[in-house]
Amino acid sequence: MSSLSPQNLNRGLLDFIDASPTPYHAVANMQSALIAAGYQSLDEKDSWGKLAAGCYFVTRNDSSIIAFNLPEQAIAEAGFQMVGAHTDSPCLKVKPQPETVKHSFWQLGVEVYGGALLNPWFDRDLSMAGRVSYVDADNQLRHSLINFVKPAAIIPSLAIHLDREVNQNRSINPQLHLPPIVLQTEEGDKPDFRALLEQQLRSEHGDEVVGKVLDYEICFYDTQPAALVGLNEDFISAARLDNLLSCYIGLQALLAGSKDKATLLVCTDHEEVGSVSTSGAQGTFLPSVLQRLAQDNESFQRMIQQSLLISADNAHGIHPNYADRHDAQHGPILNNGPVIKSNVNQRYATNSETSARFRQVCELAEVPLQDFVVRTDMACGSTIGPITASSIGVKTLDIGVPTFAMHSIRELAGSRDTWYLYSALKQFFN
């Protein structure tokens, strides 16, 4: 990591996003990077005992991951420096019985996952990816990731001639208007989505996959690659910047951080729908791992009181066309550094103690810093920060890089903010 530069950090981020259309793919790619860096894989089903000093990672549901450095020093005395992010993003997910044919067009029924901006999903070249569960030739249950990669579907808009008021008042009915078109059928055809998935499994994983597909979690995604945009490449335009940007930058900072300190990165699934799952921040994943590392409750409680968690999740940058949607004193600017997010109603976990710690970190790293507070007359979103702080009692603050078009099929962030965030998190881990 000594050769890491702002340019190859951003190139790595773009490649990571393109290769991670689902939380499953994001975790698989993070696993590969950790293994390449010498981290050892742990399994929750195994007995860990007292782990030797070293670098480890563990996953849950293939969609959440915790990676950590365990030092020689007793963690009850030192505590962990932790960074948290989430692997999921709003999208369209395929229903269990999705097949419909209307006027010869085969469409797939979808559910809207999370608080997605729906208008930008129209007229995009879409593909499909996710996890498939099936039986193999020996009737053994297996789970594999698939990714169609190529444009495989589209949601066409209705022509303006048939909806003259569309630019003044467009309303989207998710049940009626969002099913993507995947192909045109001949009379008598009976499309079978599971058969299509089996064909894709064979293509990606070999002909040993001869049993039937039992179930799946498949989502649609935009095939347009992530890119640096602007005359001076000031911006990063990509899908899933919220929150794969924080996952990737957090991972790079962990890999570049000191191996002599107790440091940890946790990236969990289902944040966009409330984190209530076995692999979400409201589940037991992080508390369970920390308790096993501490070995006993007394050591666990002492360790937590010595620890600090940075919840890294994108912030709302002040949009030049909608500047009135911000508090004028708290409107973060893209490429002006990470943002401390505060809310008196505890929608963010930041308090004066934790924000002061991060301000000190950024001063040491020579990183500019900004503040965000939502307008007093508007509702505030939330993150894994308050959830984690309340569930394990760890001191926490919420930060993120400023972003435009959050929850759109394509979001925008500053190309210099990635390096600022990386520098700050690396300083925190050191």
TrEMBL record:
Task: Tell me which GO cellular component terms the UniProt record holds.
Answer: cytoplasm
The alphabetized UniProt keywords are: Aminopeptidase, Hydrolase, Metal-binding, Metalloprotease, Protease, Zinc
SUPFAM superfamilies given in the database record: Aminopeptidase/glucanase lid domain, Zn-dependent exopeptidases
Q: Where are the transmembrane segments?
A: none
- Does the keyword field hold DNA damage? no
Question: Per the entry, which co-factors are needed?
Answer: Zn(2+)
Keyword Transcription regulation on this protein?
A: no
State the EC number(s). 3.4.11.-
InterPro entries per UniProt? Peptidase_M18 (IPR001948), Peptidase_M18_dom2 (IPR023358)
What is one Gene Ontology biological process annotated in the Swiss-Prot or TrEMBL record?
proteolysis
GO molecular-function terms, A-Z: aminopeptidase activity; metallopeptidase activity; zinc ion binding
EC class (word) = hydrolase
User: So what family is this one in?
Assistant: Belongs to the peptidase M18 family.
| NCBIfam families in the cross-refs | PRK02813.1
Q: What is this protein called?
A: M18 family aminopeptidase
